[in-house]
Amino acid sequence: MDLRTFLMLLHLCEGIGNANELRVAAFLRIYQRLPTKNELTQVLKLTPAKSHKLIAQLECAELVEQLRANLQVSQVVTILDEDYPLKLRESFRPPTVLFYQGKLALLKKPCLAIVGARQADAYALEALTKLLKPVLAKEIVTISGLAKGVDALCHQLTLAANQSTIGVIGTGLDSAYPRQNRNLQAKVAKAGLLLSEYPLGAQPLRHHFPERNRIIAGLCDSILVVEARHHSGSLITANLALQNNRNVLAVPGEITNDISCGCNELIAAGAKLVSKPDDILAEFANQLI
Predict the structure, then answer these.
(1) Peptide bond into 178 cis (omega under 30)
(2) Distance between CA 78 and CA 84 in Å, rounded?
(3) What are the tens digits of pLDDT across the range 171-202?
(4) How many angstroms separate the CA atoms of 122 and 226, rounded?
(5) How many other C-beta atoms can be found within 10 angstroms of the C-beta atom of residue 26?
(6) According to the 3-state scheme, what is the secondary structure of 146-170?
(7) What are the pLDDT digits (tens) for 205-230?
(8) Which residues contact 152 (CB under 8 A, 6 or more apart)?
């Protein structure tokens, strides 16, 4: 078994977790060989009982079949691969395995993440319509999470401009959440790139979405927040992006509208206020030369 396949199988094991996967990936990268059972136990700091359970999973034929099923409908990039995106590799807790459909090369282009409220109103549509057209004309790739509201607007406006967009989802590639975005998700996969660290059959569990958000924050060069409530997931994503030394931008909103208070708070804390396309383009000046 090659190192890459071993890492993918480990990723499919129950209860392994990203931190443990990264420890094993580091072992594989340093020693360029598979660990022995004892070494795997030591690297993961497992009790004998947990070690026995993990080894049994790795040796199970069903796990190999599960991987084969995933490879039939998607491609895979691992943190051991040369084409694993550099920005993500250097980010906070990078995923060791990503399943994808579409054009992985898009991740080498300048990328703008766009996040915001699921209950986005007409102001979000108006703001994004105004801001994105000149940005997309420069072939800056947009990234979002294929949720309702601002996420969907980001993908829709990008596709309508015949430009490239990346969707990062919190389910397997065979699922769409929300279901109403299934057609949009298919369009993103066909015209752009669809990514998930979750295998086929993975459901939209609550904890999947903060994990998805860290990937969005790691893939982008800059992140734009459009309408966000206080303590919203969009603000968490923006803070993760800041930890990764990404540029954080925000569209200001009415002080009487709760859906804008998060953006106004970001601006007060030092995020760049965006009121025109050039405010975004300035962040990509060195990449667009």
Answers:
(1) yes
(2) 6
(3) 999 999 999 999 999 999 999 999 999 999 99
(4) 12
(5) 12
(6) CCCCHHHHHHHHHHHCCCCEEEECC
(7) 999 999 999 999 999 999 999 999 98
(8) 146, 181, 184
pTM: 0.95
Sign, CA torsion 255/260/262/263: negative
The gap between the terminal CA atoms of the chain, to the nearest Å, is 44
Residue 271 contacts residue 225 (beta carbons within 8 Å): yes
Q: Is residue 201 within 8 Å of residue 235, measured between CB atoms?
A: no
- What angle (nearest 5°) sits at the alpha carbon of residue 53, between those of residues 52 and 56? 85
The correct answer on CATH 3.40.50.450 for the domain covering 104-284 is: yes
Alpha helices (H) along the chain: 3-12, 18-31, 37-44, 48-58, 61-73, 86-89, 122-137, 150-160, 182-191, 208-219, 233-243, 261-268, 277-281
Degrees (nearest 5) of the Cα angle 285, 287, 289? 75
Nearest in space to 113 (alpha carbons), one of 7, 213, 13: 213
